[in-house]
């Protein structure tokens, strides 16, 4: 289950909630499931830890895919790579991060 790997921040009580779904457009309803935002006009905060690594003398590539399905004028998503010291349940917009893009 995705919720065992990913932690939703509880920093603010009005963060939107994530759901697992293939969304409106998919090839295979089961194979194409992913984590989706469930409410329009909300902030979201979700994080997952990964094993420590080094990219010394190597190129680091960080990639993510987004499928925007809402019919809203403004919105977007981004990825932040946080230090290992991040308190995931208290993550918020001012939490220290190392890399941000989106």
UniProtKB/TrEMBL annotation:
Pfam families with a match to the protein in the record: Calreticulin
Location relative to the cell: Endoplasmic reticulum
Family annotation (SUPFAM superfamilies): Concanavalin A-like lectins/glucanases (SSF49899)
Keyword Chaperone in record: yes
Entry's Gene Ontology molecular function annotations: calcium ion binding; unfolded protein binding
Keyword Zinc-finger: no
Coiled-coil ranges (or none): none
UniProtKB keywords: Chaperone, Endoplasmic reticulum
GO terms under cellular component: endoplasmic reticulum membrane
First-listed, main subcellular location of the protein, grouped into a coarse class: endoplasmic reticulum
Recorded family membership: Belongs to the calreticulin family.
Protein name: CALR protein
Source species: Oxylabes madagascariensis
Lineage per the UniProt record: Eukaryota, Metazoa, Chordata, Craniata, Vertebrata
